[in-house]
C-alpha cells in the first residue's frame, strides 16, 4: 500500500505522456481508487494529480464514482 503513490505516479506519467491535455473516463477510473485513497488520507491530490481533479470537476459520472469511493473509504476508516 505504501507503494501506491509511486505506482500511481508511474501510471500517471504514462498517461500524461500519451494524452497531453485531458484524461478520459477510462484513464480516470484506472487511478480513481488510489486517488480517493490519497484524498482520504489528507494528501494534496489536487497538487499531485491536477488532471484527475480537473476531470472530476468536468465529469459527473467520474465525480459520482469518486464520491462513492470516498464514502467507502471513510466508512472503513471509522472504527
Ligand atoms: Zn469521466
Summarize the structure.
With 79 residues, this protein is an all-alpha fold.
Could you walk me through the main structural features you see in this protein, from its secondary elements to its overall organization?
With 79 residues, the protein is mainly α. It has one domain (4-77). It has helices at residues 4-18, 25-40, 45-48, 50-58, 60-77. Helix 1 runs antiparallel to helix 2 and helix 4 (50-58) packs across helix 5. The longest helix is centred in the last third of the chain and has 18 residues, at 60-77. The mean pLDDT is 84. Zinc ion binds at residues 25, 28, 55, 59, 61-62.
Global Rg: 12 Å
Cα distance spanning the termini: 20 Å
Broad structural category? mainly alpha
Low-pLDDT ranges: none
Q: What's the order of the H and E elements?
A: HHHHH
Q: Tell me roughly what share of residues is in helical segments.
A: over 70%
> What compounds sit in this structure?
zinc ion
* Number of domain modules: 1
Number-wise, the strands total 0
Oligomeric assembly: single chain
Q: Helix tally?
A: 5
The biggest beta sheet reads: none
Mean pLDDT: 84
- Overall shape: it is globular
The fraction of residues assigned to DSSP E strands is under 5%
Amino acid at each position: 500500500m505504501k507503494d501506491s503513490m509511486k505506482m500511481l505516479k508511474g501510471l500517471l506519467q504514462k498517461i500524461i505522456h500519451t494524452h497531453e491535455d485531458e484524461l478520459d473516463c477510462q484513464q480516470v477510473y484506472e487511478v480513481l481508487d488510489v486517488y480517493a485513497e490519497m484524498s482520504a488520507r489528507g494528501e494534496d491530490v489536487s497538487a499531485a494529480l491536477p488532471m484527475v481533479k480537473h476531470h472530476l470537476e468536468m465529469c459527473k459520472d467520474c465525480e459520482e464514482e469518486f464520491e462513492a469511493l470516498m464514502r467507502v473509504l471513510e466508512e472503513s476508516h471509522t472504527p
